[in-house]
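Cross-check.
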Amino acid sequence: MTFNEAEEKVKKYYDGIRVIRGLKYRLEVYEKRKADLENKINNSVIKLEDNYTAVSYDVIGGSLGGVKVSPQEKAVDKAFLVLEKSLEGVNAEILIIEEQISDIAAENSDIEYILQEMKPEYKEIIESLYKYEKGALKTSVDSNMDRATIYRKKDKVIYEVMKWLNFYN
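Predicted model, tokenized:
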């Protein structure tokens, strides 16, 4: 693994953190939507129009073998079917989001472990540069160091990441 590949892995790690944060927000939205749909289904919250005609039960006919279904019953069945299909879609989307979060977390696990083992000073510099996307000048001002020191420490962290990744792979 080269220096540039290790640096890309660190950048990808912090990009993954941002993506996970967005996915978790989407997951919360879908969980609320799921709870709302389940509540509607369980509490039978369906509003029907009141202009349906009655069914005449005195004449046998139709393909249901003499069983007639009122327009209101059809409307209720259709409403529940729509809610249930919507709930299935939401559940599928929740599974997709959870899988995406899981995949990103698995990809980031090596880098996360390596960065946790770093000295706090180095970790702050790397976070400033890659997580918060501050430049070297802003990072140097925030850390009370000159820019050359920031570059040296960043390079040291990237070399350390590179050594760890080469050791594991």
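The helical segments are 3-42, 71-116, 120-131, 136-143, 147-168. The CA atoms of residues 34 and 90 lie 6 Å apart. Passed to J.P. for a second look.
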